[in-house]
Amino acid sequence: MTSSDQKFEPVQVHFRALSLLATSLNEASDELTKVVGILDEALKKLNVGLTVWVAYAHRGVEDWEVDDDEIGYSKVNGKWGLALRRIWGDTRDGADNIEGPWLFNDAPREMRLKSVDGIPKVIEELGKEAFATTKRVQEKTEQVRALAGAIGQVANAEKIQSTSPAPTAPSSRIPFGPPRNTKKMSLRDLMAMPKEGAK
Hints:
Layout: H1 3-46, E1 52-58, E2 65-76, E3 79-90, E4 95-103, H2 109-115, H3 119-163, H4 187-192
Antiparallel strand pairs: 1-2, 2-3, 3-4
């Protein structure tokens, strides 16, 4: 073995070990992807349609400094699913910068591995958000129902008014001929009545 071979032998050993580890790493990563995919499908069937985010890594030092990695449930590129993002900025001026979001399986591998422990928290927050949203929807439904009832009463009143016959004004015409006598008269009484123009 030449001195050159001896020089590179440790590198070759490490490369062979890396090759074996890379295969194992890819297999483990693929298995994680499959498991998360099953969870994603279960969440999609619930049709929750709500967005939540929870931080699983904090790098900010000062109170005003934000530098977090987050996992959540969100709509990304028109598709709902578990997602990852990085958010950083300065709370003093309200500046927020966002990298991502990515659907879980599209995010960098390192982020995926570190975020797994945050998945239970995401499901917990989804439950809380679903409860709060249901309560708000119920309250808004009652408000709209009351408004619809008030408008319906006005509409029905106007409909009744428009279909009722208009009152007729009393007639000012003078009836023709002598006033009617409701008393029954015999033929003899009629003959004895004085005729108009008779002296």
